[in-house]
Amino acid sequence: MVGMQGLETMFQQLRAMGRRPEETTDAELIGMTRRSNYIADRAALEADYAVALREAYARFYASQETSKEKNQE
User: Fold this and answer.
1) Are 36 and 5 in contact (CB under 8 A)?
2) Looking at the domain assignment, is residue 35 inside a domain?
3) Is 4 domain-assigned?
4) pTM as predicted
5) Number of domains in the chain
6) How far apart are CA 41 and CA 60, in angstroms?
7) Do the beta carbons of residue 54 and residue 29 sit within 8 Å?
8) Residue 29, helix vs strand vs coil
9) How many other C-beta atoms are found inside a 10 Å radius of the C-beta of residue 15?
10) What pLDDT is attached to residue 1?
11) At what angle do helices 7-16 and 26-34 cross, to 10 degrees?
12) Which among 12, 15, 35, 31 has a CA at the least distance from the CA of 23?
């Protein structure tokens, strides 16, 4: 288990840019995360982080969409 800082802010930025989870690139996710967190510069490790970050962003995005739909009712 790894603790990361600034993910919610990063996810909010991606969503504000109109980036859906499936549209974000690994490089984008890793690059934005590295602004506040250390990620070793190893391809295999970066790939693992990218998968985890995309999954976390997908959960965040879905929760925001659900909240948006509830507010429109």
Assistant:
1) yes
2) yes
3) no
4) 0.86
5) 1
6) 26
7) yes
8) helix
9) 16
10) 59
11) 130
12) 15
